[in-house]
Specification:
mainly beta, Thiol Ester Dehydrase, Chain A, 6-stranded antiparallel sheet, 2 helices, about 15% helix, globular
Length: about 140
């Protein structure tokens, strides 16, 4: 497991430093069931025994929004075969609560992936057969 840290530049309010050690959620919060590079999607299983769910929340575990975005980031990295840094959240909508006690498996679907100017812009959803949990538009470097 790797840990993450960010320092903020007091003058401009811009995040200027990231440690090389970054925590990954793969095999800690979720496991990959399948990756489909042809249609830019993946199926993942949420791991209800994760320490994150024990803290958020013990009686009714809920996947934190920041963790959903990190899962999306890690899956995109797996599909592309590279490590990515999230540089902008253009839009994100958390439409439904994602709980491992109610939903074991979700799909991460990238409807649009545009690679330009040393960045990757993506749009997609986190969903199962019945619900869309999250819609996102993100930019990576």
């Amino acid at each position: 497991m790797r840990l993450s840290c960010i320092t903020r530049n007091g003058k401009s309010g811009i995040y200027t430093h990231q440690c090389k050690n970054q925590m990954t959620l793969k095999n800690n919060l979720y496991s990959i069931i399948s990756l489909n590079r042809d249609n830019n999607s993946a199926s993942v299983e949420l791991l209800p025994d994760s320490l994150i769910y024990k803290a958020h929340f013990p009686e009714r575990p809920i996947t934190p929004g920041v963790c959903i975005i990190q899962i999306v980031t890690e899956i995109l990295g797996e599909l592309k075969g590279i490590n990515l840094s999230l540089i902008e959240v253009t839009n994100v909508k958390f439409l439904e609560v994602l709980s491992p006690s109610e939903t074991k498996t979700v799909s991460i679907n990238f409807d649009k992936i545009i690679e330009e100017d040393n960045s990757i812009k993506v749009r997609g959803t986190v969903a199962d057969e019945a619900k869309i949990y999250t819609k996102f538009s993100l930019i990576y470097k």
